[in-house]
Design goal:
Trp_synthase_suA, tryptophan synthase activity, 12 helices, 285 residues, lyase, 9-stranded parallel beta sheet
């Protein structure tokens, strides 16, 4: 097992040993500013994050709701792109060689860079996993194998509408963990039905052997705790970004990064404390 794959499996093992679900925040790389990206990542770790999902800005984020779209637009307007995201991961690794970093984004920036070039650059930067929203598992066997060759986990989305064939296909190629989208539609929308999530996860686990994180619709400690009762990880994006937006709105221009980082760390730490109250079987159980 490579160092990158080791980091993901070790993070989930630590969470299981603690008897809790893992915490995975999502941020759009470069929001509120490119310079603030790495300090924000370190703050998320200090708040208790087990894995960081780092969104790669893209001009047409079809699966994202208005909150993440705004964050993406702000990042792009400041020149953030895939190369700079990889640079940010490399800088993060100079101080943190333990926390897994998963890139989440769309196919176009990777296609423009080229699969082989991207995989090598991602490995060199210290990326642990890659989730490409618009790469269906049935069509990316070669890309998944390329990532695996470089020690990077190919991670895939599952949804309430996923067919058995899709679940089985993901079960064959997924590494690291899988991301179950608990709601139909875009990020940040809808009502979370945890009973339905529990039923779907029980079915998915017959075919998918990696841990399963659940995202979409988790907006506070209570919803995070409900998801933590059935999922291996809780993924939070839109509400975290909203929290930073609120902090930035009342900050002066030279204090925006610091305000966003402090607000994110404080809010996410509250979610981590809430997850610790939901006890799950430990690794030794």
């Amino acid at each position: 097992m490579t160092p990158q794959q080791d980091r993901i499996s070790a993070a989930f093992a630590r969470a299981r040993s603690d008897g809790r679900a893992a915490l995975i925040p999502y941020i759009a790389a470069g929001d509120p500013s490119p310079a603030g990206c790495v300090p924000l990542m370190h703050a998320l770790v200090a708040a208790g994050s087990d894995v960081i999902e780092l969104g790669v800005p893209f001009s047409d984020p079809m699966a994202d709701g208005p909150v993440i779209q705004r964050a993406t637009e702000r990042a792009i307007a400041q020149g953030m792109n895939l190369r700079r995201v990889l640079d940010a991961v490399a800088e993060f690794r100079t101080r943190d060689d333990q926390t897994p970093v998963v890139l989440m984004g769309y196919a176009n920036p990777i296609e423009r860079m080229g699969h082989a070039t991207f995989a090598e650059a991602a490995r060199a930067a210290g990326v642990d996993g890659v989730l490409v929203v618009d790469y269906p598992p049935e069509e990316v066997q070669e890309f998944a194998e390329l990532l695996g060759h470089h020690g990077i986990a190919p991670i895939f989305l599952l949804a309430p509408t996923s067919t058995d064939a899709r679940v089985e296909a993901i079960g064959r190629v997924a590494r690291g963990y899988a991301y179950y989208v608990s709601l139909k539609g875009i990020t940040g929308a809808g009502h979370l039905d945890t009973d339905d999530v529990a039923r779907r996860l029980a079915h998915i686990r017959r075919h998918v052997q990696v841990p399963i994180g659940v995202g979409f619709g988790i907006r506070d400690a209570a919803s995070a705790q409900r998801v933590a009762q059935v999922a291996d990880a809780v993924v939070i994006g839109s509400k975290l970004i909203e929290t930073m937006e609120t902090a930035v709105a009342s900050a002066t221009a030279d204090q925006r990064d610091a305000a966003a980082t402090a607000a994110a760390q404080d809010w996410l730490h509250g979610i981590r404390l809430a997850l610790e109250q939901v006890k799950r079987p430990t690794a030794a159980a």
